[in-house]
Amino acid sequence: MKFSEAWLRQWVNPTIDTAALSEQLTMAGLEVDSVTTLADDFTGIVVGQIVECGKHPNADKLNVCQVDTGAKQPFPIVCGGSNVRVGLKVALATVGAVLPGDFKIKKSKLRGEPSHGMICSSKELGIDDPDALPKGIMELPDDAPIGVDVRDYLNLDDPIIDIELTPNRGDCASIRGIACEVGVLNNVPVTAPDSDEVAATCDDSQAVAVKDTTVCPRYVGRVLKGISTTATTPRWMRVRLEQSGVRVIHPVVDVCNYVMLELGQPMHGFDIARLDGGITVRRATKNEKLTLLDEQQVTLRTADLIIADDKKALAIAGVMGGLDSGVTEKTTDVFLES
Q1: What gap in Å lies between CA 307 and CA 268, rounded to an integer?
Q2: Is the Cβ–Cβ distance between 207 and 279 less than 8 Å?
């Protein structure tokens, strides 16, 4: 399991460094395989804002920009990024900056136009950016403060800890679980981050029947309606998922994965429009088929606990959902199970 140390320290913050924390986790049976950071080494990269942008007079694929970093004058920068535009907050390598690979930034002229720095892509900084465009520069949030060091702003020195979970430590398969362990080891309080309750605005329900209460004594879910098809997952959540080695897929899926990583509570979302009738928790029938989200078709065993509707299997309970009922870019109404 991979997680950000900064994320863990939002829950529990003992007065020990990363090395001591890693040693504690290992001695507690949560062996630390590796500790890495989010980006390669670089210096001199600051948040800038493009205040002017026009076509290069001598090169069709280049733009001449003026970038404000809070200095007395904006910096003239020649840039070939496909997404460069006025108002964009960017990562600017100023003169004297050193990029990964010991690449030093100097004043230069590109096709006759002065360029006093370089607007960087996430790839050039060695950052795994879920928002990155193939030929684009790195886009920073609109509220990124101009002039601040990008390394500090993006918390790129945040260690990513990768632990080896053994079957007997399922209690630590989440940030909350690991935080409880660290809290006990250091005799410090564990505090869940503040969250606001969201009042329900939809009274719709989904019929649910549990056929085998010995293996599933409780099954809960909620209907969510009117999800925007243009909604996107917040950048902070996408970054945490990527840090944890989880692929960003769809806002509903991403929220479910985030909750599982932080709280250890498995969740899954069904597209209501793709369901036939109510939800049933039951054992699979002999040779029943299910195509999973990874597009693998499996033949279920009668011992398998599944989630089904009136016509078909929808998911293997607690393992993986089915392709034919999963959320897509067209999904607007969802049944969230937990």
Answers
A1: 11
A2: yes
